[in-house]
Amino acid sequence: MGALDVSVCDYVLRSLILSPSCFLPASLAKRREMEKVLKPMDAEQLRENAHKMVDFIADYYKNIESFPVLSQVEPGYLRKLLPDSAPTHPESLQNVLDDIQEKILPGVTHWQSPDYFAYFPSNSSTAGFLGEMLSAGINIVGFSWVTSPAATELEVIVLDWLGKMLKLPEEFLSQGKGGGVIQGTASEAVLVVLLAARDKFLGRVGKNSLEKLVVYASDQTHSSLQKACRIAGIYPENCRLLKTDSSSNFALPPDVLSEAISKDIAAGLIPIFLCATVGTTSSTAVDPLPALGKIAKGNEMWFHIDAAYAGSACVCPEYRHCIDGIEEADSFNMNAHKWFLTNFDCSLLWVKDRNDLIQSLSSNPEYLKNKASDGNMVVDYKDWQIPLGRRFRSLKLWMVLRLYGLDNLQQYIRNHIELAKHFEQLVAVDHRFEIVVPRTFSLVCFRLCPPNDDHDHCNKLNRDLLDAVNSTGKIFMSHTVLSGKYILRFVVGTPLTEEKHVDAAWAVLQDEATTLLGRF
Amino acid sequence: MGALDVSVCDYVLRSLILSPSCFLPASLAKRREMEKVLKPMDAEQLRENAHKMVDFIADYYKNIESFPVLSQVEPGYLRKLLPDSAPTHPESLQNVLDDIQEKILPGVTHWQSPDYFAYFPSNSSTAGFLGEMLSAGINIVGFSWVTSPAATELEVIVLDWLGKMLKLPEEFLSQGKGGGVIQGTASEAVLVVLLAARDKFLGRVGKNSLEKLVVYASDQTHSSLQKACRIAGIYPENCRLLKTDSSSNFALPPDVLSEAISKDIAAGLIPIFLCATVGTTSSTAVDPLPALGKIAKGNEMWFHIDAAYAGSACVCPEYRHCIDGIEEADSFNMNAHKWFLTNFDCSLLWVKDRNDLIQSLSSNPEYLKNKASDGNMVVDYKDWQIPLGRRFRSLKLWMVLRLYGLDNLQQYIRNHIELAKHFEQLVAVDHRFEIVVPRTFSLVCFRLCPPNDDHDHCNKLNRDLLDAVNSTGKIFMSHTVLSGKYILRFVVGTPLTEEKHVDAAWAVLQDEATTLLGRF
């Protein structure tokens, strides 16, 4: 059977027998013939094949625990399994599905497995998936309001909804000068606000002053800030990643920031941007926003808050205090695609003054002009982001909010935090291990730390332990280094993870630790 | 019925009756209780609800011709229809689907309608949609090889496949120093190569020389180049958009480029980047690559080719000549999400030297380190792009190539070009209209041009005509301005468009023109 019931050979045969095209003018006959060849958007073919794909995906989730969590393939494995070039003729969907099962899935690291505890989570959910399906299905490109008013307006509304759930200051909502926008990732969010800050300052002090602009953050800040600085042309030596240590639980001490700023001003430099983090990547440290914000505002700098991971927890009243101090911020970012059940990608950025973004990022070529935009009656999100094109991403967030509701979403977060607490307690009673920094959200930072072990050996031991547990395929975790210590990170955050998975993960860790320690 | 069969009230009632949680320790009981509340990734719930969504989307396509192509809503329409805040409790999927039908779809501009002829197309197909479903379904984040080897390796392989279909020079394929990568959009593609070029030159001449760097392109180049220049900090006065006119059919004359470069060098400036276009946005002009490439290489500049729209046509042997001269290019871009049946977003970028990208865009924080990356055994696509996170986008392109095959894809392109020719012939025989530039691919640039009409009035007439046809809801077209002339753009490019739709569109245009001319 040809793919999607289309086969060139079949068609040629059929047309030889049936088609009266020899009686039509040549060009018309040619067009008619071509139109018959491929029906790539036939509604009934889509229906039939998409139902098959739904079952394939649902079956994947039924069996997800049967796969090694971390893919165990070797580099280059896939080239050996696939042909050197694309096919000339169509293949059947069944062939492709078979290949996905046999060739692709072994090379997948299963982020949705209940036994996945690495990096930060990247949540899938039925609601998020349905939203992605719908967005991919209607496949509009919403760069300007006119190209699909619903795409822009739903985004404005849903970002207001979530802003209210987070109790963001009113200035971040769309009714005044501010508003929210969905970026692809937190990297893009920090880049666009850094560009806005850069251009604002260069506008004041002259475009030849790029070399004087200074950006501040702690050394725990996500690497995307440094990358954004490089893209924006901030001089590498003016990107200050201020040192933190265990005395502040790896949060940025305000006096360290003050001192750095004073020194830079004395040297004739211009502080323009502070990035504070709520929930750093290594250890979910929470920078002290109120004090940092005061310093930033005192120096007229742009104040950005990166809460990519931990922002989700702030919809629970008991965690909202983590973003106290946001009143002073110019921009705030949280990734709904991490821990908020919205399939990747969906990074939420709010700004107090949308004109700052528009000043830096707008474009207005003739071929995109239209009455609504010309009349300043609408939001055109193309001017708030790097790319021109954009998907209808608000659908999935809207569906998550409606199909689950605030209560369930809060419970979802709390459940993961409780499971992380449970894991922390398990680690705490095994004296071969130590908790390295206090747990704040759903990440536990710990390490194997036998008594009297020296520093270097201990680091090697934990590196080996991580290798060993990940090689079992039973769980997947990742690591970091804090003040020279190699540390294991255990993040609870997938929708399927239950207590039994946490217990089983701990058993794997204990077993592998025992084996490893037995070797010495 | 609660959404996804989950209702907090139901659960509370059931747990009061059934749960023995009062006999468990408090924290354990709390956890168990929470785990019961929400099952956002239950495989059978996903199956049941996703089947409903498939039918919703297939029905949308069945009825797609019943909607106005261009949404006819007023700015702010949606806020009046939706509540002010997110729900506390879950809603049912049926409620949400009803809202999509009644509130969202009226605000959608239907890019997949067979009567859509605006901008450039943004193709959906069954194969592309299935690929999007699968990618959203397994929801991995493939920033490094290790986070899902298949995501990286399939992308390398599929970009090689397509590179061969386009007969790209071997240096663009992955076996040597080059290779392909999927970016979100052409805007991101041109940005990353511009950054690579900027950093390469600044590395040679010193980072204080930003003000001397000059970028060249024609004034027909997509606005994303200018935006990329602003982001990269290229001085606005050093972004040369060289004038074109009808004498070269709006392609960039090589002597104009040579002259500009000579002048800049004489003034002590440093030419770094040339962006040539194959298929400009306004009129699908094709810049003369061989001559331009020679000039760029003679001056040691980076030579980028933007074939976002027309690149797809180059898989047909009879259009491959449009990219002759690519031998001299450093990078080449085509959007599979425009005219190649791959759902948005999927912008393909090939470079001859991937290290140029990696030099500019790599990051290597401790928490992402892993053996495969440390050993330089693998591609880590995070270092070829702006964001860190990335979806498994190669799946959809792979499925398009396999389920349709090269022959069908070529026929698909040819069919659209034949339909555009057909439209061009219809316009040509109506003496009230004129074809403004010769048609090259599937775009026809034309305008209403009654004899003896003056320039300004003629522009107004065409603006009014566009308004009138788009207001009917029967078709959607867009416009441009070339050498001061307001021009209507008619692009054939959606998978559902057949000859009858082109004929009907022409009838709408003729009718509205008759009405409009009757008024004067």
Describe this structure in words.
- Chains A, B: Its cofactor is pyridoxal 5'-phosphate.
- Chains A, B: One of its GO terms (biological process) is amino acid metabolic process.
- Chains A, B: This is Tyrosine decarboxylase.
- Chains A, B: Keywords: Decarboxylase, Lyase, Pyridoxal phosphate.
- Two copies of one chain form a homodimer.
- Chain A is α/β, with parallel strands linked by helices and about 525 residues long.
- Chain A contains 16 helices and eleven strands.
- Chain A has helices at about 10-20, 25-35, 45-60, 95-105, 125-140, 150-165, 185-205, 225-230, 255-265, 290-300, 335-340, 355-360, 370-375, 395-430, 455-470, 500-520; strands spanning about 180-185, 215-220, 240, 270-275, 300-305, 330-335, 345-350, 435, 445-450, 480, 485-490.
- In chain A, helix 8 (about 225-230) links the parallel strand 2 (about 215-220) and strand 3 (about 240).
- The N and C termini of chain A lie far apart (about 60 Å).
- The model of chain A is unreliable at about 1-25 (pLDDT under 50).
- The interface between A and B is large, with 178 and 178 residues.
- What percentage of residues of chain A falls in helices of 4 or more residues? 40-55%
Give the low-pLDDT segments of chain A. Answer: 1-24
Radius of gyration of chain A from the CA trace? 27 Å
How many beta strands in the DSSP annotation of chain A?
11
**Quaternary arrangement of the chains shown?**
homodimer
The SS-based structural class of chain A is alpha/beta
Give, in order, the helices and strands of chain A. Answer: HHHHHHEHEHEHEHEEHEHHHEEHEEH
Q: Rough shape of chain A? A: globular
The span between the termini of chain A is 61 Å
- Biggest β-sheet strands, sense, barrel of chain A: 7 strands, mixed
Strand order of the largest sheet of chain A: 1-7-6-5-4-2-3
Strand content of chain A: 5-15%
- Pair with the most extensive interface? A-B, 178 and 178 residues
Mean pLDDT of chain A: 94
Please, how many helices of chain A? 16
